[in-house]
């Protein structure tokens, strides 16, 4: 159990650089299994989910490890298709190993994936798309088994909803399939473009990534190796923005891509923060003597809409705003498990299904709260910055899944935040 201790009442200042995006790194690590040459991923943060990914790669017979801040992988002739249950259960992103292992081994058995308890997160779109490419699918009570005879083949497949994970799974499968695959109704998130960028650097032939239709011409000889730098983490950047909005101050987020979290920056502007964007930087200022503006109506949905991972962070900002607000998550049923922690801090909130109602004008007082999941835990840390006294966030490992050291990052900006 980790305890993050936050003392409110201190404004933030300085500059900070977000790390490589967790939501890019994890599928790219799985995609290295498709490569017949060595791969190098630059500037990877040391997250617990990355550690789990490396353990999973090792468990199926791959070679991967750290070299300073980079991860190096080396090709191996034979892999195993069984994903250990303890690793599959540790993170949702284990689903990314379905396609690479099916391509390389010919069959794969994946126990039910784990991760944050955000509600039902079905993998039916992954399976339907792989079946359209020639995979045979068997679903047991505790695992999914896929088999193929011969190579996977191209298909014209329409996703029933723009699932990020399914889009990434099918991108990986199609890159090494026979013939051309057309994926329609796909997710358009920046991390989709990033995975396509890595696959293309390794020889894949992909057009349309970042749009609703992606065309992939399968490469019969498989992919090569390559060196790649994942994009900056837009959710980490949003976290820093939420922190200065909650605490007040003046910070600059450097080496980021403002367009990737533009909806969050628009939200901060609506609350009264001053936001100035450049090509690769954002400056965010908030006078702590001026109240934040409430009356916000946020709807989290697929990109380019408001990011679901940023919804709890926005809610933390709105706790002390001068009027009521509502945040609705269109993707996950249990996104606002952090509401109990907000209430313990003194906020008047009500979580009803996918919606969080926030009365605003809260006088937050530090107390002991528990992180229910990754982003909800980060939101409680942000709320602690706006509270009087000491807030202790008890975390069973959720926050380290997405932040290398959130307390140290915030402390570098002047926050009184540390791991106790």
How would you characterize the overall build of this protein?
- By secondary structure, the protein is an alpha+beta fold.
- It folds into two domains: 2-19 and 232-419, UDP-n-acetylglucosamine1-carboxyvinyl-transferase, Chain, CATH 3.65.10; 22-228, Enolpyruvate transferase domain (UDP-n-acetylglucosamine1-carboxyvinyl-transferase, Chain), CATH 3.65.10.
- Helix content is 29%, strand content 25%.
- It has helices spanning 22-31, 48-59, 85-88, 98-105, 124-132, 164-175, 190-201, 234-247, 262-270, 311-318, 339-344, 374-386, 406-411; strands at residues 2-7, 12-16, 39-41, 63-67, 70-74, 107-111, 136-139, 143-147, 156-158, 180-184, 205-207, 213-217, 226-228, 249-254, 274-277, 281-286, 297-300, 325-329, 349-352, 355-358, 368-370, 390-395, 416-419.
- The strands form six sheets. Strands 21-22-1-23 form a four-stranded mixed β-sheet.
- The protein is elongated.
- Residues 7-407 form the Enolpyruvate transferase domain.
- Its EC number is 2.5.1.7.
- GO terms for molecular function: UDP-N-acetylglucosamine 1-carboxyvinyltransferase activity.
Write a brief structural summary.
29% of the residues lie in helices and 25% in strands. With 420 residues, the protein is of the alpha+beta class.
């Amino acid at each position: 159990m980790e305890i993050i201790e936050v003392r409110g009442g201190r404004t933030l200042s300085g500059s900070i650089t977000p790390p490589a995006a967790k939501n890019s790194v994890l599928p790219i690590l799985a995609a290295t299994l498709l490569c017949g040459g060595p791969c190098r991923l630059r500037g990877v943060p040391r997250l617990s989910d990355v550690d789990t990914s490396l353990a999973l790669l090792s468990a199926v017979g791959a070679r991967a490890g750290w070299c300073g801040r980079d991860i190096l992988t080396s090709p191996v002739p034979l892999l195993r298709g069984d994903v250990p249950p303890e690793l599959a259960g540790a993170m949702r992103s284990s689903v990314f190993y379905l396609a690479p292992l099916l391509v390389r081994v010919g069959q794969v058995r994946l126990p039910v994936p784990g991760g944050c308890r955000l509600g039902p997160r079905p993998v039916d779109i992954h399976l339907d798309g792989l079946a359209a490419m020639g995979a045979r699918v068997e679903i047991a009570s505790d695992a999914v088994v896929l088999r193929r005879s011969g190579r996977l083949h191209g298909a014209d497949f329409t996703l029933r909803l723009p699932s990020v994970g399914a889009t990434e799974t099918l991108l990986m499968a199609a890159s090494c399939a026979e013939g051309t695959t057309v994926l329609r109704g796909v997710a358009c998130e920046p991390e989709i473009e990033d995975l396509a960028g890595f696959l293309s650097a390794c020889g894949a032939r992909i057009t349309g990534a970042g749009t609703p239709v992606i065309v992939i011409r399968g490469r019969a000889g498989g992919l090569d190796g390559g060196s790649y730098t994942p994009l900056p983490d837009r959710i980490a950047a949003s976290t820093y923005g939420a922190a200065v909005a909650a605490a007040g101050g003046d910070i600059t987020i450097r080496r980021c891509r403002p367009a990737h979290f533009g909806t969050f920056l628009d939200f901060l502007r609506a609350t009264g923060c001053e936001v100035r964007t450049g090509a690769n930087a954002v400056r965010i200022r908030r006078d702590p003597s001026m109240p934040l503006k409430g009356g916000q109506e946020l709807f989290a949905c697929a990109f380019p809409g408001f990011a679901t991972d940023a919804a709890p962070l926005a809610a933390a900002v709105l706790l002390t705003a001068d009027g009521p607000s509502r945040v609705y998550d269109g993707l996950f049923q249990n996104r606002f498990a952090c509401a109990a922690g907000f209430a313990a801090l003194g906020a008047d909130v009500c979580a009803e299904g996918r919606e969080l109602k926030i009365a605003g004008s809260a006088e937050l007082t530090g107390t002991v709260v528990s992180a229910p999941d990754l982003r909800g835990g980060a939101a409680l840390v942000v709320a602690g910055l706006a509270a009087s006294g000491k807030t202790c966030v008890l975390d069973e490992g959720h926050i380290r899944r997405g932040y290398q050291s959130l307390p140290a990052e915030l402390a570098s900006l002047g926050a009184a935040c540390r791991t106790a």
